[in-house]
Amino acid sequence: MEERLQKLLAKAGMASRRGAEALIRAGRIRVNGQVVTELGLKADPTQDTIVCDGKEVHFEQKVYVLLNKPSGYVTTMSDPQGRPIVTDLLTGFKERLFPVGRLDLETEGALLMTNDGEMANAILHPRYHVNKTYEAWVSGFPRPEQLHLLEQGIMLEGVTTLPAQVRVLKRSKHQSLVEIILHEGKKRQVRKMFQAINHKVVHLKRTAYGQLRLGTLGPGKYRILDDKDLKKIFSNKIPFTIKNILA
Ligand code: URA
Known about the structure:
The protein has helices spanning 5-11, 17-25, 117-124, 144-152, 189-196, 227-233, 240-245; strands at 3-4, 29-31, 34-35, 42-43, 50-52, 55-56, 64-69, 98-99, 108-114, 132-139, 155-156, 159-160, 165-171, 175-182, 201-209, 212-213, 222-224. By secondary structure, it is of the alpha+beta class. It has three domains: 3-56, Roll (Structural Genomics Hypothetical 15.5 Kd Protein In mrcA-pckA Intergenic Region, Chain A); 64-127 and 212-246, Pseudouridine synthase I, catalytic domain, N-terminal subdomain (Alpha-Beta Plaits, 2-Layer Sandwich); 131-209, Alpha-L RNA-binding motif (Alpha-Beta Plaits). The longest helix is centred in the first third of the chain and has 9 residues, at 17-25. It is elongated, with a radius of gyration of 22 Å. The protein binds uracil (URA). Uracil is lined by residues 103-104, 107, 188-191, 204.
């Protein structure tokens, strides 16, 4: 696919978007042997040879996929116990996609898969405040003051959890459906948080990363994300390195 040269160079990690523009203006970039100094030019990394200071620039297409992970799949890249792994659900990709963070074997829902390590780190780092939204069916009916404890931060294994947003969505005869929004991801965090207030999680689903919602995507189904989708993930604070890629 054709894209503006400065965007391609930024995506390849050569420089920031501004830095890439400076490289072009300085005449340090050649496309198919021709020096390019004009900023509007588009190129296709699958067809064109792009060279910076005499060295060919290698482009790996970055791919971002939103999968609805079904229960019973592990989010590791291999499993010694031979259980199904999430990558089994993705077909036809030549890129090696890995999951952004983990979901427990039994947890369902939104799981981002990508070959972009930088993007994955930004999504997982609490600094960028990417909210992860979960819907948890829990036993019984947690009282408002118990939910308030989860909101404020609760001590788990010697560390206080970061502030969270918590609200009850509905109740059945014996259980409550609680939405909890976190911007960190400690192992089995949602389950442990509810355990700490004596309400066991009986079913857990992640429904969103930032404003990027799972929507109607069925279990085991996935879709390829575009720049608009990626911006929704970072609606709070777009990391500088990612800003160069999205525009
Ligand atoms: N919290 C959990 O307890 N489990 C998950 O899979 C994700 C968040």
